[in-house]
Structures are given as C-alpha cells and as structure tokens.
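Page 37, continued from 36.
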C-alpha cells in the first residue's frame, strides 16, 4: 500500500512512520531525513538546501520532487511505502501523482500547543535517527540512544522561533492538501489532542484505518 502521512511538523509523523514500517513491511520515506542526509554528506545539493532547512522554510519544489522521485524508483518501494513529509505543497502532490498512485492519506490532527511543547522537547539519535521526547519518550540514559548507543541531539530547526515559522509555513503551503486529498476520497483523520497519548494507541488507530482501506479495495 502507498500511504501518505500528513500533518503539521511535530505531529508525530516520523515516530509513527518508523513503527508502521516494521508492522507493514514497506519502507518509511522521510523527505526531511533525505534532506538532512544530503546536508550531512555536504554534497553540492546539500550545501544548497541547508539554509532552507535551518530556517524552517521549504526546499524548492523541483529539488525535493527530484530527490523523492529517485528514492521511489528503488525496488524496495515496489510493494508500497509510507511517505512522511511529502507532499508539502499542491504542486508536489500533483508531481507525486505522476510518479505513483496513492492509496490512503492519514491526516494527523494536532493542536498548536501540543506541537510547540513536543518539538521543544524532541531529541534525535545522530546514529540511527530514533526520535525521543523529554516529556513522553525519555531515553533511559541522558542524551544516549536506547537502541544503538548513539549520541542524541536537538535539531537545528527545533528552536522556538523556527518552530513558529514552520507552523506558519505548514498552514499556508501544506494545509490546502487536506482539501485536495479529501476531494479525492483518500483522506482519513486521526486526532491526537493529548500530549500523553502513547504512540502505540495512535499506531493502533492508524493500523485499523489501513486494514479497513485494504478490505475495501481487496488488497
Ligand atoms: P518537520 O519536522 O518540520 O515535519 P522534516 O524533518 O519533515 O520537518 O523536514 C525538515 C526540513 O526539510 C523542512 O523544514 C524543509 O526545509 C525540508 N523539507 C522536507 N520535506 C520537504 C518537502 N516535501 N518540501 C520542501 N521541503 C522539505
Ligand atoms: Zn540510535
């Protein structure tokens, strides 16, 4: 199944997608991770896009569409994928239609206060990318990854001024996709309005939606 996870920054797309990928056996494709990897490798492209990412604004459509198209060509995507952080604009959604047929869009509905609290407490593993949260998903050892022992860090764009900026960008550029996909009959909402809801509960809801969608379409 080809699934898109939609929702504001900090809605939990990465956290849920990294667990869903294990349960569903299809790859988790995060354009944010692809962008950070290019930056880390200091490729020409990476140097070009670092500034956008650090400021919390979108990388130009043509760059991100090309990166994503390359990723979706890999054979591990044949049986489906979970997209996290793409599409983020109407023109990205239109480009995606040319590349793959999307079966389902899960829209995570999360109030701003929760997003701000979550992102200001978020830590990422520099080695394996695992996501932690000082309030809800604390690592067992201070600043060390439970899974691989790597060092944890705070993302450059998780600073309060940048978080506000990213939320504005989301409202303006990405939120129109909710209507775009609901008109196509592909959108399902999952509401997360409590900071302390365990990720597993949300995953269960998402899996339920995916199962019903599969039954309907005879997968
Ligand atoms: P968030 O936690 O805000 O959802 P991501 O990790 O998905 O952030 O992305 C980090 C940054 O990478 C974004 O702020 C943006 O600069 C860039 N980026 C990721 N995906 C896209 C996309 N689909 N279109 C444009 N820029 C993107
Ligand atoms: Zn790790």
């Amino acid at each position: 199944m080809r699934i898109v996870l939609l929702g504001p920054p900090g809605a939990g797309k990465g956290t849920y997608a990294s667990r869903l990928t294990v349960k569903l056996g299809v790859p988790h494709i995060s354009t944010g991770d692809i962008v950070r990897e290019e930056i880390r490798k200091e490729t020409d492209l990476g140097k070009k896009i670092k500034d956008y990412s650090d400021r919390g604004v979108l990388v130009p459509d043509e760059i991100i569409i090309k990166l994503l198209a390359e990723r979706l060509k890999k054979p591990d995507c044949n049986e489906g994928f979970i997209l996290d952080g793409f599409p983020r604009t109407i023109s990205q959604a239109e480009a995606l239609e040319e590349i793959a047929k999307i079966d389902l869009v899960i829209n995570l509905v999360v109030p701003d206060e929760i997003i701000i609290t979550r992102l200001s407490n978020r830590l990422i593993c520099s080695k394996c990318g695992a996501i932690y949260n000082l309030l809800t998903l604390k690592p067992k050892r201070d600043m060390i990854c439970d899974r691989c022992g790597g060092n944890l860090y705070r993302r450059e764009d998780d600073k309060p001024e940048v978080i506000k900026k990213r939320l504005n960008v989301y409202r303006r550029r990405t939120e129109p996709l909710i209507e775009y996909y609901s008109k196509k009959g592909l959108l399902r909402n999952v509401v997360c309005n409590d900071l302390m809801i365990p990720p597993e509960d949300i995953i269960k809801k998402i899996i339920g939606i995916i199962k019903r969608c599969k039954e309907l379409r005879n997968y």
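Residues 199-217 form the longest helix (19 residues). Flag for discussion at group meeting. The first strand starts at residue 2 and ends at 6.
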